[in-house]
Amino acid sequence: MNVRSRPLRLGVLAACLVPSLALTGCVTNEESALPEGWKQPHTDMVPGIAALYHDGDGVLTVGTNPPFAPFEFKDSAGNIVGVEMDLARAVADVLGLDFRPVEQDFAMILPAVQQGQIDMGGSGFTDNAERRESFDFVDHLYAGIQWAKYSKSTKDIDPDNPCGLTIAVQRSTVSETDDVRPKREACGGDLTVLSYDSSDNAALAVMMGRADAFSADSPVTAWAVDRSEDRLETVGEISHAAPYGFAVPKNSELGPAVAAALQHLIETGQYQEILAQWGIDQGLVEQAMINERPINGS
């Protein structure tokens, strides 16, 4: 996966390399530029699809937790941008709704969807069996977990043999719950897990020497490596391949409506164009799915 973008400026990176745990906006939060040639997507409302869902205030509110680039992060003006935001905005257009991202702590997004405080969650959510018990997921991309290490490190880093290592992750993500925590148990506790509030802080921990490697969703790791000015490099193979999707209330009208809107974007080629703007050309879905089942029932 190749994300075409300018590297992080040395001055910004140097300003971030300070001895503090409260580090934000250093690797992938406030970027100096969007991908080359990026344009905010816009598409027309499709009446037949818009009729599938009625929203009281006419706004599709999407809970998200930047920085988690390239899914979502803040640009230099403080706007929440990213490939998932572009997809959600295009879905809102098809449904005839305005789009509003709502910044939240990652762990609070799904509860907010469940309580009706926001319409859906869009923050790099993995669609898995446990989450499907309480939510439906409109799948929009296949990805996995990828590790990265400090490029100048001479330590042997093997994700399949991680005992004795210190691994950084974003708190409450699948990288923590399904990757490093089980590996820690398999190592009999001989693996240190550093949990941060954002993926960029996990990457920064590696560059500062606090962690041997970090684990994150493969597009997130690729983005961080691409913008690290050769300070980070991937290690090991992609694992835990799974669909990523928008989280909506279980058995709600919104799920089929969002899926129908995504199907429209796929058929018109707009879905592919949106992902291409972010350098993503692998893992694309061929048809809209809810909980990894095609909406046409095939």
Describe the structure.
With 298 residues, the chain is α/β, with parallel strands linked by helices. It folds into 2 domains: 47-143 and 241-294, D-Maltodextrin-Binding Protein, domain 2 (3-Layer(aba) Sandwich), CATH 3.40.190.10; 144-240, D-Maltodextrin-Binding Protein, domain 2 (3-Layer(aba) Sandwich). It is globular and about 60 Å long. It has helices spanning 10-16, 47-50, 83-94, 106-114, 129-132, 174-186, 199-207, 218-226, 254-268, 270-277; strands spanning 30-31, 59-64, 73-75, 80-81, 98-103, 120-121, 135-150, 166-170, 192-196, 213-217, 232-249, 284-290, 293-294. Keywords: Signal.
Descriptive terms for the model:
disordered N terminus, D-Maltodextrin-Binding Protein, domain 2, 298 residues, seven-stranded mixed sheet, alpha/beta, 13 strands, 10 helices, three-stranded mixed sheet, 30% helix
Beta-strand share of residues: 25-35%
Largest sheet features:
7 strands, mixed
The rounded Rg comes to 19 Å
Question: Which runs of at least 5 residues are low in confidence (pLDDT < 50)?
Answer: 1-32
Q: Domain count, please report it.
A: 2
Q: SSE order in H/E notation?
A: HEHEEEHEHEHEEHEHEHEHHEE
Shape verdict: globular
Mean pLDDT metric: 86
> How many beta strands in the DSSP annotation?
13
Kindly identify the CATH topology of the largest domain: D-Maltodextrin-Binding Protein, domain 2
